[in-house]
Design goal:
Elements (H helix, E strand, L loop, with lengths): L4 E6 L1 H5 L9 H13 L4 E6 L12 H7 L7 E5 L3 H9 L4 E7 L2 H8 L3 H17 L3 E7 L3 E2 L3 E2 L2 H14 L3 E6 L6 H15 L4 E5 L6 H8 L4 E5 L8 E6 L6 E2 L3 H24 L2
Helix pairs in contact: 2-3, 2-10, 7-8, 8-9
């Protein structure tokens, strides 16, 4: 990647599809990912290694990963919730794994049924093993600015948690505004502190779209390397992750016509079942 390009890490095939009532089959998921590749994307989160009983939309991610075209310039990643998920991901050939730890006790309980310290113990085990086995490990800190259950999260809490994740060997820590509630000033202050301690190259930001503040926050951190955001223009699974060089004038190397086609396909696929049901009521 040169200083004039943006690389996009697209997580729609995982973060978007997992919340849909209509479940795409493996052929449809593969078709979506290959359409994204054809549009020029080279960093794609293809799915997650979770129990199919808990998230049936992600069933068969290992088989999917094996069927995808692999090359040196393509990075496929997968979300792993626990050590079993990590092992399955690595057996399927995933070189990059992502784990999620929420910054608050209640969010961890609601999201994965574990307390804060238990969640971080699992994270430590996965990071340590991944580092030893040569995996690229990305650690998300969810609800890092505001929790839907506990309210505002203190910056000092996130700073200490990020320090722990880095100490265990995480390659990247993603500071995630999961519900889109962070104000730009809070983002600026927190990220300035983290960058000063850890450097920009190892940090990322994820901005959810729910409360519509994502794009304001993106302007604040655009000089850092990784930005994850929600996009209302891509309904149903509009999650983007944009890797920016620390320049303000950049060129996006993605075919706009093909990216639109990829998301039209996915939008049609996830809505076909809904339309069919409506037509037969």
């Amino acid at each position: 990647m040169t200083a004039s390009t943006i690389a996009i890490n697209e997580v729609g095939p995982r973060d978007g599809l997992q919340s849909q009532d209509r479940h795409l089959n493996l052929a449809e998921r593969q078709q979506l990912i290959e359409a994204l590749l054809a549009a020029g994307l080279r960093h794609i989160e293809v799915g997650s290694f979770v129990s199919p009983r808990a998230v049936p939309q992600m069933a068969g991610t290992g088989e999917l990963l094996a069927q995808l075209p692999h090359s040196a310039d393509i990075e496929f990643s997968a979300l792993v919730p626990n050590m079993k998920g990590y092992e399955l991901a690595r057996e399927a050939g995933a070189g990059t794994v992502a784990l999620v730890a929420s910054a608050t006790e209640t969010m961890n309980q609601k999201n994965i049924g574990m307390g804060l310290e238990q969640t971080f113990a699992v994270a430590e085990a996965i990071i340590s093993r991944g580092t030893a086995e040569g995996a690229h490990v990305q650690a998300y800190l969810a609800v890092a600015f505001e929790c839907p259950f506990e309210g505002a999260v203190a910056a000092e809490t996130v700073i200490e948690q990020a320090r722990r994740l880095f100490a265990w060997g995480a390659d990247e820590v993603v500071i995630a505004d999961s519900i889109g509630a962070a104000n730009p000033a809070a983002v600026r202050d927190l990220m300035n502190t983290l960058v000063a301690e850890h450097g920009a190259a190892a940090l990322a930001c994820h901005f959810g779209k729910q409360l519509k503040l994502a794009f304001f926050a993106v302007h604040i951190v655009s000089r850092w390397q990784w930005i994850f955001l929600g996009d209302d223009h891509w309904p149903h699974f509009g999650i983007l992750a944009v890797k920016l060089n620390p320049l303000f004038h950049v060129r996006l190397c993605v075919r706009a016509d093909r990216i639109s086609g990829a998301f039209r396909f996915a939008h049609t696929a996830v809505n076909a079942f809904v339309r069919m049901n409506h037509e037969h009521v």
